[in-house]
Amino acid sequence: MAVQTGLGEPRGPRFVSPSLDPYGDEWHGVHGDGPGRGRRWRRILVFALAVIALSTVSGALAGGYVATQTNQPPAPAASAAAAVPPDLIAAADKVVPGVVSVMVDGPGGATATGSGFAIDNLQHIVTNDHIVARGGGRGSEVTVETPDGRQMMAKVVGRDPGSDIAVLRVPPDAQLNPLALAKPGATRVGEPVIAVGSPLGLAGTVTAGIVSALDRPVRLGANRHNAVQTDASINPGNSGGPLVNARGEVVGVNTAIATIDGNGSIGIGFAIPIDQAQQVADGIIAKGG
Fold this sequence. Notes:
It contains 4 helices and 14 strands. By secondary structure, the chain is of the alpha+beta class. Residues about 5-70 and about 70-80 have low confidence and may be disordered. The chain is about 25% helix and about 30% strand. The strands form 2 sheets. It has a 6-stranded antiparallel β-barrel with strand order 9-10-11-14-13-12. Strands 2-3-4-7-6-5 form a 6-stranded antiparallel β-barrel. It folds into 3 domains: about 15-80, no CATH class; about 85-95 and about 180-285, Trypsin-like serine proteases (Thrombin, subunit H, Beta Barrel); about 95-180, Beta Barrel (Thrombin, subunit H). A hairpin with a 5-residue loop joins β5 (about 140-145) and β6. The longest helix has about 35 residues, at about 35-70.
């Protein structure tokens, strides 16, 4: 049986923006412009951080000067992190019971890990195909860990590599809560969302952000998709988990992240729109049971 290994789980499919890289390389450069591209990104980051630091210091000095001139105490510093909206708290409470960790035994004793979520009362689970594929496909031994820590074997109902969607099924006693799915066309840029899954093996993790863009053309693996872009933190292990709106409805299946020099999340993640994922999943279930 697969074991949740945590740190070091492989990332999802490489992200390539067609408008940025005609050669099909990762953002951080493999061929294309060569190593120089990675160095440029580092220089841009260093410059941006320097500007932020300079602005912060200048703002603090200016604020102190104004305070001394008016004999008024300086205003209290803003909170480092904005408060989480109550509707997102309610959404997380509703969604987490339907999200699972997925572990697939691979060659040589390796384990591919990711996330998934229940979509119906028959205990079908949607996840990413690339997680199942790393274990060798339909005949792989797949283990699902439920939100209450139980582990059970899952059947691979079917896979669709082109859409990066796979469907699993667990026994009825899993008693997973199926998640509500957002209606097509209902998702809006700027609306708050949460990503739920098991990044780095940490089951039941929730991160918050917004929908950054819709219909973002990206290449995930060997195929191109129009994805939902989000700044909710997505890391290795989040693949296959749901991107959820403030009403507790799934708007997408978290699938990939953009990185700089191969490092972790930089606030640019991509999800397969739920209407596409649902259409594929329904077809798989109709054929595979």
